[in-house]
Amino acid sequence: MDPRSLGLMFATICMVVILHFPIQAEADAKQIDSYCQQSDDPKLCGTVLKDSPGSEKAKGMSGLTKVALETVKKESANMADFFTKLTVTYPQFSVPLKECASYFKEAPQFLDLRGVKDGSATLDVMNAGDEAQRCETALAQAKANIPQVAPQIKNWRSTFQVAYSGVRAVESEAGN
Where is the secretion signal located (predicted)? Predict the structure, then answer.
């Protein structure tokens, strides 16, 4: 092959690759937008999913819901670590802070789509949401007014809500 032909072939391959990816990104964005219409806060949902690893490869409502659930699982682990670290800063509240860490460690066991067929998935996932409420109750009973806590729980709840909305939609699609 002469150098001119090689250059032309290379340019053609580059154009195909360059033109393909914006189309794929646009399709991914449309899929995420469609998913997020099921959410209470579509804008937040879009932000969470676009920042979540795996969303660009997820297929359909179920795939994006799995990505959202994995994101909440990671956030739950981060929350458990957050509360564990606060026990050093606020040793007078170590008991309720350790409870909170425990609640957020437990949350991931409820974050999946196992119950979709029998209609119990939303109930299962809601149990994970209840763990945040248990944490807030434990802190309130101990009169632990720690300024960093409320924003962290709010962020976790926002991410949780994205996943929960998806679970509701997937369960509804399954006829439950």
Answer: 1-27
